[in-house]
Amino acid sequence: MKHILAILLALIIVSCSQKSEQRKRSNTSIETKTNSVSVESKFDFYSDDVLTHIDAEELCEFNFDFFLPQLNQKLTEKNLKLNIQTADDYENSFEIIINKRQFKLYKNEELSNQKFWDSGPRNFFRIVNEILKDKNIDEQFYLLYAGNDLHTVFLNEQQFESMSKINKDNNNEIPYLP
Question: What is the largest CA-CA distance in the chain?
């Protein structure tokens, strides 16, 4: 009988030890998952350091002073400043100059069919991102929302992927390249 009790006691001890190890592994797994999420959520995608209100109407009406100071503030630590000028005949040509690069903000056809609210910001930030790339800056401006709510987020590729992953169930919160 003593022999059977000793075997049962040993089985109970082994069983308790195995359950304790399983709990430790489970807790480690939970901590790992929590840490990977918290790394992504530690970066505040909606902070003023990252997010800038653009307003497509202001941009398409050539009112760059509405948002340019905030963009240049973000670019200061990258040793870059955007210098934006309108062409002399911008009211007819719709051309602007960003850091000596002249281009059409939008076309007359886009103005006629009301697509300039979308094409103007895309063209503007496409040129800005080309300037960033030429300066070997790994962040880009991604667009978020549209119209009067148009914003831009200044992200590197990893931050963009994290923001997209976090917002995978809400397409309105996923930024897009111009």
Answer: 105
